[in-house]
Amino acid sequence: MWIVQLALRRPYTFVVAALVLLLLTPFVLLRTPTDIFPGINIPVVSAVWLYNGLSAREIEQRIIYSHERIISAQVADIEHIESTAYNGAGVIKVFLQPGASISDGVAQITASGQAVLRFLPAGTNPPIIIRYNASTVPILQYSLASRKHSEQELQDLAFTQVRVGLMTVRGASVPYPYGGKARVVAVDLDLPALQAKNLAPQDVVNAFNAQNFILPSGTAKIGEREYNVSLNSSPEVLTELNDLPVKTVNGAVIRVGDVAQVHDGYQPQQNVVRLDGLRGVLLTVLKSGSASTLSVVDGVKQAMPRILSGLPPEIETREFADQSIFVRAAVNGVVIEGLVAAGLTAVMILLFLGSWRSTFIIALSIPLSALSSLAILSALGETINLMTLGGLALAVGILVDDATVTIENIHCHMARGKPNIQAILDGAQEIALPAFVSTLCHVVLP
Length: 446
Hints:
The protein is α+β, with helices and mostly antiparallel strands. It folds into four domains: 149 residues, Multidrug efflux transporter AcrB transmembrane fold; 93 residues, Alpha-Beta Plaits (2-Layer Sandwich); 103 residues, Multidrug efflux transporter AcrB pore domain like (Alpha-Beta Plaits), CATH 3.30.70; 77 residues, 2-Layer Sandwich (Multidrug efflux transporter AcrB TolC docking domain, DN and DC subdomains), CATH 3.30.2090. It has 13 helices and 16 strands. Strands 5, 6, 7, 14, 15 and 16 form a six-stranded antiparallel sheet that branches. The chain has a four-stranded antiparallel sheet with strand order 2-3-1-4. Strands 8-13 form a two-stranded antiparallel ribbon. A hairpin with a 2-residue loop joins strand 9 and strand 10.
């Protein structure tokens, strides 16, 4: 009741506060991220090891076990560790204690991955560190297909141009594309030719390692000009790799092209994506946990025309799975529901009580209550998401009921001849406890 008494003593203070809230609403709504789910920091960090060719057992014994020992010694606040080994890959999940710093955990696990590298098989790359977040979800997808370009060309364009271009959008994260074929320089060995020339596959590998590398050459100053000096140590054309010498036998030079074929190839394909029957690639845009779904989608859609202008015109691009449509529909639904509730309640008050003043108060109090809730959520660092919108939708119904009953009870006391201020105090006091208990029931019962 103290707030009712304060409002009666200082009415202009509340009027000014309402006006300030209305003026600040656009700024509050613009700076508050709009998302699908609320931001939930899950205290789990994963280290993903990749080593093609190793079996699951070798991954477990040679990589995962060694890294787990380093993690247990260097990472603090560990609850437990889970690991899974696959052919060519291994995943270590580090579950941290509740309340532990996830950023510190990521830094410590990254450092442990660098420290364990010298104990692992030669050629092992550092692990990929993944931080989990419940609000990092796919929000937009693009598919690329072409009748003219091969699958490896499509994946190469998606990976090197489209994906790199979208990485400049704030809050957007684009993982590796699905479908297509990973483009590589393939060396197909001719085993009968190797045997006939008394060579082993390792001889071809050694030839590439010894003759396909970059050496710093510097510059040469001749007269008044300074020229860049380049060494013929790395072929610039793919077919030139076939001319690399492997071995000299009796004065005859055996080249790579004599025992193998170097060509533009691809790694074994693991998934297929089709667009209207055409094989292509699929790019998925993820939203980072602290960004707004609407702003990320708008940024991606603004950047895509510029990115696609640099691709060949034969590539067909299609956009789908736009989650911003769902988010906008949810926001508009709550806004429309609040306006309809305020309008119907005002009409009901006007018909049954015949008071324009009470009608104006009811019509204004419902949107002000919703706006004050959004302002508090924004000040606490929360987002406008499906859960907060669902709570607002439920709260609007409760607010309509409480406001209608309170206004009707105040008019009942005024009809008995009480002064306006006393009628407001008595009417609000009678409703305060039942309304509070009813609200608690809505909070406790799902």
